[in-house]
Amino acid sequence: GHTVMATFHAASVEKLIQRITGSPINVPKTYMDNLNVVIIISAVKLPNGKTARRILSVSELFGYDGVTDSFAFAEVFHWNPETDSYEFTGYMNSYLLENKIAVKRGIPANKRRVMYQELDRRAKVLEKLHRSGVKNFYELYQ
């Protein structure tokens, strides 16, 4: 299938699922396993007193359990309002990285944690670009 992105007004993963599976949308709960990631965004007050929009959390949705009528999901990124920074709470524990992306890339089960080393490498490259003042890809080639 094709990658799809949509926006909804919801304050949490639970509220989003209620809106999608409830009236008038009525998507069957069993279809919700097609939803991989939920990003919650909100206007917040920063430590300096200013108001800004921030991604509050990024959560991975694992699927629906028909027996308990519940959804399994885990927050993998979390915004820290005190420092206005993000914490990767899914480090070494990401369902999508280990069970979907690694599988699609043909990475064997015993080597899937290598994905985190690649994330670390990419984060270091981005941090170096940030420290160098590079703001867009045009500046990268100068």
UniProtKB/TrEMBL annotation:
Molecular functions (GO terms): ATP hydrolysis activity
Coiled coil: none
Record PANTHER family: FLAGELLA ACCESSORY PROTEIN I, TWITCHING MOTILITY PROTEIN PILT
Stated family: Belongs to the GSP E family.
The protein's name: Bacterial type II secretion system protein E domain-containing protein
Protein species of origin: marine sediment metagenome
Taxonomic path: unclassified sequences, metagenomes, ecological metagenomes
